Amino acid sequence: MTTERLLNEEISVPEAIVRVLEEAGIDMVFGMPGGNAMKIFDALYDHRSTIRTVLVRQESLAGVMAETYGRLTGKPGVALGQSLYAVKCPAGYA
After folding, report:
1. Residue 94: inside a domain, yes or no?
2. In principle, which of 10, 11, 61, 64 could form an S-S bond with 92, CB 3.0–4.6 Å?
């Protein structure tokens, strides 16, 4: 079985993540920048014409905002955090 390359150029991992979000039709991301997540936020800044980034002061709020956005629009809500807390509480609940 052969596979087809998705990219013909070398790009950074954060740039690849943002391109996947764009291809998936994501137009809004909620999150708290910091730590290694800053690299993804930097890539999101470069794509600000297609993906709006809403910064929050607490990761759980990003989860709540993403869930509410998803319910109101029918589109996937994306929450991006800087720690394991974001994984532990994907819907924003402790």
Report:
1. no
2. 64
For 45, the token pair is 């800044």
3-state secondary structure of 77: coil
Cα 5-48-87 angle, rounded to 5 deg: 70
Q: Indicate the number of domains in the chain.
A: 1
- CATH number of the domain encompassing residue 44: 3.40.50.970
- State the Cα–Cα distance between residues 71 and 75, nearest whole angstrom: 8
Tokens standing for residue 86: 């974001």
Q: Residue 86 to residues 31, 80, 82: CA-CA distances in angstroms? A: 9, 7, 7
15-29 pLDDT, tens digit each: 999 999 999 999 999
pTM for this model (two decimals): 0.79
Q: For residues 34 and 42, what is the distance between their CA atoms, to the nearest angstrom?
A: 11
